[in-house]
Design goal:
- The protein has about 625 residues and is an alpha/beta fold.
- It has four domains: about 80 residues, Signal recognition particle alu RNA binding heterodimer, srp9/1, CATH 3.30.720; about 180 residues, P-loop containing nucleotide triphosphate hydrolases (Rossmann fold, 3-Layer(aba) Sandwich); about 70 residues, Helicase, Ruva Protein, domain 3, CATH 1.10.8.60; about 190 residues, Peptidase M41 (Methane Monooxygenase Hydroxylase, Chain G, domain 1), CATH 1.20.58.760.
- It is built from 21 helices and 15 strands.
- The strands form three sheets. It has a seven-stranded mixed β-sheet with strand order 6-7-9-10-11-8-12, sandwiched between helices. Strands 1-4-3-2-5 form a five-stranded mixed β-sheet. A three-stranded antiparallel β-sheet has the order 14-13-15.
- Strand 6 and strand 7 form a beta hairpin.
- Helix 16 runs antiparallel to helix 17 and helix 17 runs antiparallel to helix 18.
- The protein is globular, with a radius of gyration of 33 Å.
- Bound molecules: adenosine-5'-diphosphate and zinc ion (ZN).
- The site of adenosine-5'-diphosphate has 17 residues, from helix 7, helix 12 and helix 14.
Length: about 625
């Protein structure tokens, strides 16, 4: 910006006005208008205030101006009981009001009229010239065009706009592991940023937006940072979820500020996390559109269209829900590239573990491969967390290096939560032991069930006892008999309770098991065509209601089919339950022995468990699917 008298005037005039008001105000008492944070812009009449009082909706009252104005905090029953601040002009000093507030126990405060006039008078006289000089100084600084120097992370505080900028992320592609395809695809984006001429020379239009799609913790943020790191450009980031709670207009102005700053620092990366929070389809939310969100989204679209061709800004957005995004976002020229970032497979997990083991001391016995094998379904963040937990345990135990013991404990902790203390010997401890042994015996004796890894009475998280099965790698295909085996295994706990203690003594401990059982049985019928209803798909992938999408996704079948589905589900579960009870009854002797052992030792590992069972009955050979590294 060149210095000119016109711009100078633009700055000086408001400074004069503000200065004048401050100068005036400094002699007056604190009035609600100058109460800073406390100011409430919405007014309420005195009558309404009394109604609110009658309805017990008033939370607190602050009195100002010698009792002539009040700032009231009240519960807004139309807005999820959110607290709203309202300003009320009171009819003069009202002692009855104060006594009423006191009797009803409503929190109130009286703010005195501030009257340290002399000091304020002096300050008031000074403030005017100071402001003028300050304004001029600011003006010159701006015209000097000094952007924030490199190497600093900063937040910009304009209009409550907060977004992060990292001049150097320090993250490289080497730090991102296990998602090779995504990395390869994004390699090109680095070239766009570093050598745009190569593309523009042949007339290619450089893409503006890339959408990273994948579950949380898979490294989307990391990947975006790595692009910035590799290209050596600044990284701006903001999260979509932050917009949702804001006042109307703030989100949009935040987006505007973000793009403005980004343009000043181009080439650069803008990263928008959780874009689905702002980018949901417009006008489709429950209870009407969210104005703020729509304004923010519109501003985002405008900004993306606004910068011409090759300004060197690439916007990377992350989401787990591309299906709910507004179609306008996915149009050419906006987020027209989608890259999927998935939970890593066993090879990927090994790579991620290698990355995070770099700065840790591992005992030589530790095999990262074994860890990778044990952790199907873990995301990159879970694995990072796992190694970190193990390191913390190692430090706590004052060991030199992480051993397999710490790794095991950390895996258990990441999967099932913190260990609690076991119950003292009691009837309920016995019952839990039977429940867990019930799961384990069926897992062992049913051929298609995953083998038992250990049974324990040490509670973790919500569970009071646990049976762990050796995890099998997430298979592409699961057979009907495998699902039936899982249903039987899950029913094993309740079956043992019932056989041993009788129908009247069964407990709520099986609630979680039954939920899983019903889910599996239902899917067999409605999704996988594994019942006598035949090979029909009667339900979509997910029966979850999409907020922001049509609420009315109804199942496409008749009442009659619905009742046949229910009948099928019931028959599957009943059949499996009969089977589970039969196995428990037929193996009662070994179950009793195992329960005694479990109560004594609190944990039995899979090998020992199988040895004991094998003394009494034949264990079917299990086919374990071993993934290849
Ligand atoms: P997302 O943005 O997908 O939710 P993040 O990028 O925030 O996930 O990942 C959180 C942390 O987990 C990262 O800082 C990193 O330490 C670790 N992490 C996740 N995925 C990977 C990966 N593929 N390679 C290495 N580390 C990863
Ligand atoms: Zn159970």
């Amino acid at each position: 910006m060149k210095f000119s008298w016109r711009t100078a005037l633009l700055w000086v005039l408001p400074a004069l006005v503000i200065g004048f008001f401050l100068w005036q105000g400094s002699f007056a008492s604190t009035s609600p208008a100058t109460m800073g944070r406390n100011a409430a812009n919405t007014r309420m009449t005195y009558g309404r205030f009394l109604e609110y009082l009658d309805a017990d909706r008033v939370v607190s009252v602050d009195l100002y101006d010698g009792g002539r104005t009040a700032i009231v905090e009240a519960i807004d029953s139309e807005l999820d009981n959110r607290i709203q601040r309202l300003r009320v002009d009171l009819p003069g000093n009202s002692p009855e009001l104060v006594s009423r507030l006191r009797t009803e126990g409503i929190h109130f405060d009286v703010h005195p009229v501030r009257n340290d006039g002399a000091v304020w008078g002096l300050l008031g006289n000074l403030i005017f010239p100071v402001l003028l000089i300050g304004g001029l100084f600011f003006l010159f600084r701006r015209s000097g065009n000094v952007p924030g120097g490199p190497g600093q992370a900063m937040s910009f505080g304009k209009s409550r706009a907060r977004f992060q900028m990292e001049a150097k992320t320090g993250v490289m592609f080497d730090d991102v592991a296990g998602i090779e395809e995504a990395k390869e695809e994004l390699q090109e984006v680095v070239t766009f940023l570093k050598k745009p001429e190569r593309f523009t020379a042949v007339g290619a239009r450089i893409p503006k937006g890339v959408l990273l799609v994948g579950p949380p913790g898979t490294g989307k943020t990391l990947l975006a940072k790595a692009i910035a790191g590799e290209a050596g450009v600044p990284f701006f980031s903001i999260s979509g979820s932050e917009f949702v709670e804001m006042f109307v207009g703030v989100g949009a102005s935040r987006v505007r500020d973000l793009f403005k700053k980004a343009k000043e620092n181009a080439p650069c990366i803008i990263f928008i996390d959780e874009i689905d929070a702002v980018g949901r389809q417009r006008g489709a939310g429950i209870g009407g559109g969210n104005d703020e969100r729509e304004q923010t989204l519109n501003q985002l679209l405008t900004e993306m269209d606004g910068f011409e061709g090759n300004t060197g800004i690439i916007i990377i957005a992350a989401t787990n829900r591309p299906d709910v995004l507004d179609a306008a976002l996915l149009r050419p020229g906006r987020f027209d590239r989608q890259v999927t970032v998935d939970v890593p497979d066993i090879k990927g997990r090994l790579e991620v573990l290698k990355v995070h083991a770099r700065n840790k001391k591992l005992a030589t016995e530790i095999s990262l491969e074994a860890i990778a094998r044990r952790t199907p379904g873990f995301s990159g963040a879970d694995l990072a967390n796992l190694l970190n937990e193990a390191a913390i345990l190692t430090a706590r135990r004052r060991k030199e290096a992480i051993t397999m013991l710490e790794i095991d404990d950390a895996v258990d902790r990441v999967i099932a939560g913190m260990e609690g203390t076991p119950l003292v010997d009691s009837k309920s401890k016995r019952l839990i032991a039977y429940h867990e042994i019930g799961h384990a015996i069926i897992g062992t004796l049913v051929r298609d069930h995953d083998p038992v890894q250990k049974v324990t009475l040490v509670p973790r998280g919500q569970a009071r006892g646990l049976t762990w099965f050796a995890p099998s790698e997430e298979q592409m295909l699961i057979s009907r008999s495998q699902i039936l085996a899982r249903i039987q295994g899950a029913l094993g706990g309740r079956a043992a309770e019932e056989v041993v203690f009788g129908d009247a003594e069964v407990t709520t401990g099986a609630g979680n098991d039954l939920q899983q059982v019903t889910g599996m049985a239902r899917q067999m019928v409605t999704r996988f065509g594994m019942s006598s209803l035949g090979p029909l798909s009667l339900e979509g992938q997910s029966s979850e209601v999409f907020l922001g999408r049509d609420l009315m996704v109804r199942s496409e079948y008749s009442e009659e089919i619905a009742s046949r589905i229910d009948a099928q589900v019931r028959s599957i579960v009943e059949h499996c339950y009969d089977e589970a009870r039969r196995i428990v009854r037929e193996n009662r002797v070994v179950i009793d022995r195992l329960v005694d052992l479990l109560i004594e030792k609190e944990t039995i590992d899979g090998e020992e468990f199988r040895q004991i069972v094998a003394e009494y009955t034949d264990i079917p050979e299990k086919e374990q699917y071993t993934p290849q590294l």
